Amino acid sequence: MALGSIKFQRARSLLNAGTLLVGLGAGFACRRADSTASGQLADAGDASPADAGSDSLSVSVADAENSIDEAGVSWTSVATAASCNLRWTGAWPATARKYRAWKPCGDGCSVAPSSLDSPRGVSIEDATGATFDGDGIIRIRSGIEPSGSIVEVLRMRDEWRFAAIRFESSCALLAATGGAPQLLPLTTDGHAYFAGVVSLAANSVDWMPAWATTKGSQLSNFLGTSFGITESTGDVLQLDSIKSSTFSILDRGPITSYVSYGRNQLVVYSGEVGSTFEEIRGSFQGATPQTLVSLSTTDCHAVALSDDKMVWIGTHGRNTQPRPV
User: Fold this and answer.
1) What is the 3-state secondary structure (H, E, C) of the chain?
2) b vs e for 243-273, b when ≥16 Cβ sit within 10 Å of the residue's Cβ?
3) Is 224 contained in some domain?
4) What is the pLDDT along the chain (325 residues), one digit of tens a residue?
5) Is residue 47 part of a domain?
6) How many other CB atoms sit within 10 Å of the CB of residue 157?
7) d(C-alpha 54, C-alpha 73), whole Å
8) Structural domain includes residue 223
9) Sign of CA dihedral 55, 119, 86, 245
10) Predicted TM-score of the model (pTM)
């Protein structure tokens, strides 16, 4: 579902590290006025909009072709995903850069339109974000004409764009990505997957060498040790690294996980155990998963991590559905 709005807020009362929660607004993006950086990101990413150059990120895919669009932005084709006409960029010439006009909206808050160019708005399900070294990093997808999408990974305080991709409707961006704005996962039919990971520190994008296929359909996806998904089969799958194209089974039942979240090589996921209760399970660096929480009276529809805490949201009653955080 595509709406023209995303709301951003730092949840300090829940997670000390200030994990960025992505919710809904009414045609606007919101941020806290105190979301300043700690200066620990890469030098190339610390440039302000006024002085930011047009240096490209590096791409680790052979046989790439370049094209320049009408705005003067250079896009590099990703040969492995040619069926989607997948292209990416890390370069925005000064003449092509656009920035949101932020206005005050109360104590510690500013507001701006969420979509700069697209009349089709910003997708709710595909939006995700987290804080890294005190900076709010977000991933948003907008519809572009005639039938494609553009996905941006950017820093909120100055809208520095680490990378962006464009692709046609023959592929879809995986929704339900918990807390991994640097993950760019695509699918063709819900059983074949291709992903890239943006390195915020090294100014690089690593892509899978080939498409990976699975038997079940994806329910959620995460960035733990590497790109991973939870499946309708009850399995939790993860690549050994982004340089792999074969999923390994991280966990096999007994739960079917509709939400998952990864941070610092830790991945947590929740789901039903039979018809009586739910569990939240976790795995660090691909080790044997452990049950972290058992819930007998609530449904866990959201789980999130900071650097040192986990938070989950339990719900009661009918007509509730899991949402990524």
Assistant:
1) CEEECCEEEECCCCCCCCCEEEECCCCEEEEECCCCCCCCCCHHHCCCCCCCCCCCCEECCCCCCEEECCCCCEEEECHHHHHHCCEEECCCCHHHCCCCCCEECCCCEEEEECCCCCCCCEECCCCEEEEECCEEEEEEEEEECCCEEEEEEEECCCCCEEEEEEECCCCEECCCECCCCCEEEEECCCCEEEEEEEECCCCEEEECCCCEECCCCEEEEEECCCEEEEECCCEEEEECCCCCCCEEEEEECCEEEEEEEEECCEEEEEEEECCCEEEEEEEECCCCCEEEEEECCCEEEEEEECCCCEEEEEECCCCCCCCCC
2) ebbebeebbeeebbbbbbbbbeebbbbbbbb
3) yes
4) 333 333 344 333 333 333 333 333 344 556 654 443 332 233 333 333 333 333 333 333 333 467 777 677 888 999 999 999 999 988 676 677 777 777 888 887 878 777 766 666 778 778 888 988 888 899 989 887 667 888 989 888 888 888 999 999 899 999 888 889 999 999 998 789 999 999 887 667 899 999 999 988 888 999 999 999 999 888 999 999 999 999 999 998 767 788 899 999 999 998 777 666 788 999 999 999 999 988 876 777 788 998 889 998 877 665 555 544 4
5) no
6) 17
7) 9
8) yes
9) positive
10) 0.77
CATH label of the domain that carries residue 242:
2.120.10.30
What is the span of the domain harbouring residue 227?
A: 214-325
For the chain, the domain total comes to 1
One-letter amino acid at 312 equals: W
User: Do residues 183 and 163 touch, judged by C-beta distance below 8 A?
Assistant: no
106 within domain boundaries: no
